[in-house]
Structures are given as structure tokens and as C-alpha cells.
Amino acid sequence: MENNRENFGSKIGAILAAAGSAVGLGNVWRFPIETGQNGGAAFIIIYVICIVLLGLPIMMSEFLIGRYTHSNTAGAYRILSNGSPWKWVGRLGVFTGWFILCYYNVVGGWTLHYTYLSATNAFAGVPASEFGGMFTDFAGNPWIPTAWFVVFLGIVHFVITRGVQAGIEKFSKIMMPTLFIITIVLTVCSLCLPGASEGVEFLLKPDWGKVTSTTILQAMGQAFFSLSLGMGCLCTYASYFDKSTPLAKTAVNVSVIDTFIAIMAGFIIFPSVFNIGMNPNEVGAGASLTFISLPNVFQQAFGDGSVLSVVFSSMFYFLLFVAALTSAISLHEVATAYVTEEFHLERKKGACVITLSLLALGILCSLSFGPLKDITLQQLAAWLTFGKVDVTGVSAMNIFDMFDSFSGMVLLPLGGMFIAIFAGWVLDKQLYKDELSNSGEIKTPYFKLLIFSLRFIAPVAIGLVFLDQFGVFSFLK
Ligand code: TRP
Asked: Which of 407, 418, 410, 424 is nearest to 465 (CA)?
């Protein structure tokens, strides 16, 4: 409840900023593949149910906690916890966001490099089998990925230092419509390809036979990551909402935009995959899909080296860049708001502290595919136990993967679970209702269901996702 804090200048600015956070790499490189492999429309239906039953209640809670306290995430939980250990939930969130950024910015740099390669027609004439080597050579290079990473982080830093209205909001108002237009153009181009209908069918034909308990857990995990939940990202943005912002409506808008872009990403990717007769199960996921399969797919589908393929690929990687950028900005803001408010620094100084720390760790992540590739979890385990313990069972993941896995598999689910329990059990119900209804102005017929989800459905569901990742269920079987 600090004074002199900036707010977003408009409701549309607030929605676009939050949507910018939500729409990110997760939408483009995870959602389409998960949908294709898990029964198409069946997966989309389960995903939407997860959003309604888990995503929306948690998003509304994060919004509410931020707007009510008008404070950074750590401050918000401190204010609401009255000295109890719940204050640690906010701090955990700040740490998680910072931790995710250490590798997320590196991928942001990759999207810039691939935009550049596409625009300069560097994929022309490259045989299909060479794209893998092209990417590993690039990622393993000691300088190039690191330079792009620094450029990406520099842009994030620039926007953050300009502040909430002149930086984040203004930028979202330019970038989100741009992202939207590019998405539509790419979708239309892709759907015009011969054989596009097969791709659409792959994505949309409901195949309930493919749905297993793992599918449901996957849908939940994806819903969480895609909506930027579980660490106070949206809580920080909501601390810049003014009192008249309708929380539930904003949450619904953000979720609809996020899901729409995710489904469109599928329409961009699969028609071209089917067009060139590739098996969608071979395209891989995540980085290998995006930086190895797709450059090849786009070259083949739109004509190797043709103007159309240059335009299409450049737009696609630029889209990915914009999506990653607005998400990275939202994560950076969590940490910047924290250091500026809790340690009373100027915004510029606070942002510098965060950027410099991200620079240091990001370089480690960036180099972990090249010069530092031998520093693996297994190696670290051996060092830490002075070589006295057998570490052959420990994963040989590199530094980048350690940051990715630890945040995705441990920090985010824990954060999400704590936030649900906090909002459902600890937060005063009257306060919750007052805030959600803007002191009685908005009707909240869903209030009981919301609280029920926060108390029971969400904590149990997230707990299951968490345990499943460590193979606890297969272990029990
Ligand atoms: N939602 C973004 C994506 O889809 C990533 C992201 C931004 C995020 N902020 C977050 C994920 C907070 C979890 C928590 O790529």
C-alpha cells in the first residue's frame, strides 16, 4: 500500500501486458506438440477444463493479492501474512522468476539469431539432415549465442528501466497487436498449403483413446506454465491495476488470448509438417522442434530459398522473439519491483542489479552447450561428494537444463500449490469477495466454486503433477 506507485494507464494496457506475459515460448513450442500427441481436440478440451478449474482461480488470486496490496510479490505476501511464514511464498516467487529468466533469456537470444538467419536466407539449400548440426554448432559456439543473449537481455532491460506506463504498457500495446497480426498472417499462409487439412485434422480430431492420466497431468502443467502462474508474475502486474479493474474479466480475457495464440501456433506448424510429408511424431518438441525441424519444414513447404520461405520463416522467428520478449519482461519486472521496493533503490539501479545478475548466470547457461558442456549435474554431484559416492544414476544434464528442470519441475509447482493454499485457506474470505466484486459492484456467482477449487481441487491437482514428475506413481505401480 505504498504511495507514488505507478499504475497501468488503461484497462486494455493492463490486459495486453498480462497477456504478453502469458503468451510466450510455451504457447509456440510446447502446446501444439502436446496437443498433437495427446489426442488433439480431446487434449484441448482437457486443457480448457484445467484453465477453468485451476488456472482461473489461481490467476484471480494472484491478481487480487497484487492489486489489494499494491506491492511487489514479496511485499504482497509479507503484508497479507501478518508475520507468519506465508511471507516466504512471495520470496520464493521472486526467486523462481529470476531463476527462470536465467535460461529463458538465452532462448530469447536464439530466436533473434534464427530471425536473422531466416531474413538473410541462410537456410536456402541446406539439406534436411544438416539442420541439427547447424543448431548444435550455433548453440555450442562460445560467442554468437552469448552475443544474441546479451542483445535480448539489453532490450528487456531497456523496457524495464522506462517504467510501468512508458515501458511495459506502451511496449505491450505495440507488441501484442503485432504478435496478433503476425499470428493471423502465418496461420492463413500455412492453411493455404496443399495438404493443410491433414494438419488441421491431426490437431483437432479428438482421439480420446490417447488420453491417459499422464495426459491430464501434462495439460495441468502446461496450463500453469502458459498462463504464467505459480510465482507472482501476474501478482506483480496486478499491483499496477487500478481499483476499478475487473479482476475476473481480466483473467478470462488473458486466458482466452493465451489459448487462442497457442491453438493458432498449432495451425502454423502442422499444416507445413504434413505438407512435406513428415511424420509429426518425428518433429520433436521444444528447442529441437523450433530450431531443427521447423527451419527445414518451412524451407520445403514454401520453396527452398524462395521469397515466400524467407518471409514466412522470418515472421515465424520474429513472432517467437516477440512472444519470448514480453514474457521475459514480465519476469524481470517481478525481480526489479522486489529489489526497488524492498531495498529502496531507484528503479534504474534496481533494474541494473537484476540485469547484471542475469547476465552472469545467463552466460553460464549460454555456454553450457559449448565450452561448459562438461559441467553436468552428475559432475557436480561427484565434486560435491568428493568422488566418494557412485553418481552414475544422476542425470548428466547441463547447466541450462538444470535451470530449466529445477524451475519447471520443482519451484513452479511448489509455488502454485502454496499460492492456492494461501488464497483458499489463509486469505480472509470477506476480503476476497470484496476485492473480486470491486466492493459489491460486480456480481460473483462463481465465488463458492472458486473457493472450493482453491481449497481442494488446485492443491491436490498440483500436488499430483509434482509427484508424477518424479515418477512416484510409476514407482508405486
Ligand atoms: N507464460 C510464458 C510462456 O508461455 C512464460 C512465463 C512468463 C512464465 N512468466 C512466467 C511461466 C511465470 C511461469 C511463471 O512461455
From this structure: 410
Answer yes or no: is pLDDT of 188 > 70: yes
Is the pLDDT confidence value at 324 over 80?
Answer: yes
219, three cell numbers:
495439460
With beta carbons less than 8 A apart as the criterion, state whether 125 and 303 touch: no
Q: Cβ–Cβ contacts within 10 Å for residue 149, how many?
A: 26
CA of 327, closest atom in ligand 1: 7
Q: Note the pLDDT of residue 101.
A: 97
pLDDT at 473: 73
- Residue 256 CA to ligand 1 center (angstroms) comes to 15
The protein residue whose alpha carbon is closest to atom 2 in ligand 1 is 24
Using the atom order of ligand 1, give the atom closest to the CA of residue 97: 12
What pLDDT shows up at residue 409? 87
Give the pLDDT of residue 475: 64
CA of 225 to the centre of ligand 1 (A): 5
> What would you report as the CA-atom Rg of the chain, rounded to the nearest whole angstrom?
22
* Cα distance between residue 253 and residue 248, in whole Å: 9
What is the 24 CA–ligand 1 centroid distance (Å)? 6
Residue with cell 512471495: 90
Closest CA to 63 of 243, 227, 225, 237: 237
Ligand 1 midpoint to CA 328 (Å): 8
How much distance in Å is there from the Cα of 29 to the middle of ligand 1?
A: 13
Which atom of ligand 1 lies at the shortest distance from residue 233's CA?
A: 12
Question: Which residues, other chains included, contact 246 with Cβ-Cβ below 8 Å and sequence gap of 6+?
Answer: 438, 442
Q: Which run of H or E residues covers position 160? A: helix 144-161
Q: What residue's CA is closest to ligand 1, atom 15?
A: 24
- Average pLDDT (85-96) is 98
Q: Is residue 185 pLDDT above 50, yes or no?
A: yes
Q: Ligand 1 — pocket residues by CB below 6 A?
A: 21-22, 24-27, 225-226, 228, 230-231, 233, 327, 330-331, 412
Q: What is the pLDDT of residue 470?
A: 82
Asked if residues 408 and 224 have their Cβ atoms less than 8 Å apart, the reply is no
Residue 150, class by beta-carbon neighbours within 10 Å (0-12 exposed, 13-18 middle, 19+ buried)?
A: middle
CA–CA distance, 351 with 283 (Å, rounded to integer): 39
What would the grid cell of residue 396 be?
A: 548428466
Amino acid at 401: D
Report how far ligand 1's centroid is from the alpha carbon of 74 (Å).
Answer: 18
30-80 pLDDT, tens digit each: 999 899 889 999 999 999 999 999 999 999 999 999 999 999 999 999 999
Q: What percentage of the chain reaches a pLDDT higher than 70?
A: 98
Testing ligand 1's pocket by substitution, the residue of 225, 330, 412 carrying the most ligand atoms inside 8 A of its CB is 225
Question: Cα(230) to centroid of ligand 1, in Å?
Answer: 9
